[in-house]
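Protocol step 4 of 5: obtain the predicted structure for the target chain.
Materials: sequence only (see below). No template structures provided, no constraints applied. The aim of this step is simply to have a reference model before the mutagenesis design in step 5. Sequence pasted as it appears in the construct record:
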Amino acid sequence: MEHRQLGRTGPQVSAFGLGCMGMSGMYGPSDRAESLATLDAAIEAGITLLDTGDFYGMGHNELLIAEGLKGRRDRVRLSVKFGAQRAPDGAWIGFDGRPSAVKTSAAYSLQRLGTDHIDIYRPARLDPNVPIEETIGACADLVAAGYVRHIGLSEVGAETIRRAAAVHPIADLQIEYSLISRGLEGPILETCRELGIAVTAYGVLSRGLISGHWSKARGTEGGDFRAASPRFQEGNIDANLALVETLRGVAQARGVSVVQLAIAWVAAQGRDIVPVIGARTRERLSEALGALDVSLTPDDLATIEAAVPKGAASGERYAAAQMSHLDSER
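Step 4 output (structure tokens):
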């Protein structure tokens, strides 16, 4: 497994990370045994970056990871998002970036994860009611106390990145980035590169939409995030799946799967970009890891760009209410 450093000040991590959200019901029911087996397979394959959030399954995801890491905590780097507020019915009800909330969230995450430190700690969103300097300042206090090693950001724009970096070095920005979600390109990526901040790219398969495996016949199960995603709705889904079929032709000509081509495209955008794979089964993980062996030439990249040009997706990546919380989209 190749390794990369997260920015100028961050840790060394594997070239691909594992996003664990789907193991806690965000895409419908998940299989606990298979989730643990997938975590094991990822670690044995050399993945050292595990990404989670304290609001994934309301602590379920952190407890699951703790179980999977027994006896080998030192082999991975834990990236934890905090701050998203949810009601008992699972509804998203805001974000809390107050310093006291930051430290309380960290205390609970440390307990659930069964660890004495978090490797990368990041606010999941920008709290519109709390200056980013205060939120990052609280994270810096946790670094000084030894509970956190590095600080990251998630889904924020260029101005916020600069303000945060003025308080404490930032290891990486976590943001959605794929062939059909390219808002990172432009001022945000330019700012990250100017300041020596890496990018951990989630949603590299756009929640499975551009995996080549999803179809309208499959639909979405109860509790599946995609049921409310505009890109999976009537009026958008047919156009988006047509893009996937075009991409499938490119992948077949290259002798790889759609999954591998899409992930390899993200990885080819720079060594400072680490794709975070949201696999929740060993089968999907194995396929995704095949992208490590896919080296794209300039001609390949041009062909992919022609097949799925920037802005080609139909529908926003989140529903309107969630889009309004994204500083990265302002």
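Step 4 remarks: The chain is about 35% helix and 15% strand. The first helix runs from residue 32 to 44.
Proceed to step 5.
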